[in-house]
Amino acid sequence: MSVTTPVPAPVLRAAGDSALIVELGDGIAPDLNAAVHRLDRRIADARLPGIVETVPTYRSILVQFDPAVTAAEPLGQALLGLATEMTQAAAEPQLRWIVPVCFGGAHGEDLDEVARRCGLGTEEVVRLHCTADYRVYMLGFSPGFAYLGGLPEMLHQPRRENPRMVTPAGSVMQGGAQAAISPIAMPSGWHLLGRTPARTFDLKREPPFLLAPGDRIRFTAISAAEYDRLDGISGYLPDCETVTPSIALMQGAAA
Amino acid sequence: MTTHLRVAAAGPSSTIQDRGRVGYQRYGVSVAGAADPLLHAAANALVGNRPGEGAVEFTLAGDSVTVEGGPVRIAAAADADLTVDGDPVPGWTSLRLTDGQTLRIGHLRSGMRGYWAVEGGFALQPVLGSVATHIRSRMGGLDGGALKAGDRLPLALDQAADRGEHCLDPSLLPARGGRLRVMLGPQQEYFTPAGIEAFLEEDYTVSHEADRMGCRLDGPAIEHARGFNITSDGIPLGAVQVPGTGRPIVLLADRQTTGGYPKIACVVGPDVAALAQMRPGERLRFAAVDAAEAGRIQARHRELVDGLPALLQSAGGFALYDSGRLLGFNLIGGAVTGWD
Questions:
Q1: Which one of A207, A217, B33, B240 has the fewest CB atoms closer than 10 angstroms to its CB?
Q2: Where is A36: in which H helix or E strand?
């Protein structure tokens, strides 16, 4: 765990007649995002009357409420209370998905280019991706699209100058300081590193979303033959383990 | 045989909508749902449905549908000419159509969007709890797309209930003006005082870049104080985001769940629907209200939607409710002012 920074006092922001934003800070940082997800869990557990849904993001939570049931003022006070009490929160176990990826070649057309830009061998790029401890910072953009934080700094590269109009479902990509797993075929300017046979969004599955905000990810490299084998298994799900956040992460989030 | 409506001709953009897909924005799923919940609820009320039942939202021009089976009770909430098998029929009135009859809904004389509903709604499998169509993610409705000629819409009721028809006098609905009430925030500090002043004091015009996702406005540029990139956060309905051009975009039902442009303000719910009914070239002005006033606006709007059934009259000309009852709902005779 790198240096942890204290999370500043929570700020409440107006967001129209049916929503509030609880902001825990700014920027993209693991301890800040961990605090967001712990607060999101606390809000769910508190079952405050009138909350319709919450949208946790990198550094804030959009709380949508039913104005027929509650008003912004009392709800805002309750949310601030939950955010302030978080200093006593215990570590919550998290899910870590072990996501198999076939890197390079037809499965990841930009792997060689990323390696060249970073001045690394392709094996080194793959090794770095497979040792990184990724966190699902948030889901957005399209159903099930997971923004992953934790891309090793030596891999950071600007997006492609010329976005592709279509990238295949299951693409493992990187753009700027972030990585992502794409749920469906979509346009993207991110660099394609590989492909996973794990489907992160499938309406025929219950629940349809594999990843939740706050989950952790570890990639593991597989061969093209193994990709084909797993891809042929109907309803294939990757392995998953339960992990407890490190003490350093906790202290950073609670400071 | 299940009763169907066959789409003989579809309007330019007609989709099945309900109140939207609630609870999945955290997974990146857009809410969607009716752009104008009031007229959507009015169409449903006319055929005796609950307000959130799936109904068709059409854009600028309506659809032609032919009954297969039936009879079917159907009604349009729209300022448009209607015909059944070529003969004019009244709008804002429920109709009982029999096997083979075709209802044609013409062009809207005013507004951007109209609605038609069938008694009992459509027999469609909800996706993530909703039948609302979101075309960008191909979700909901009929295979996630707009209606097209040849589509067959399965109905939940094989036969319309045996009862009289209802009509609604649209003049009882509040007039909508070009004044959109907003609550400032969540990121008003990203704008200079001059930028906020322009936003609240100048006229803006609905541009041609307007769809169910958002409505881009033309008008004075809104000056940023500290760049136009924020760390992406959630986007509520009606959020006014201001990208680098300084031209505001109001985000509507099909909006993306998260975004990285600063949001100067959020339009209050009922006025978001009013904007969704404005055509390119129409002028508007924003007016700031506080949370308490926004809450009152919402409450009055809820009362209006809940009271729609009480506004219905027998299509034979007999009032279903006496005027004293109507006044009790606080909905007519000047009890409602403006678009409240």
A1: A207
A2: helix A30-46
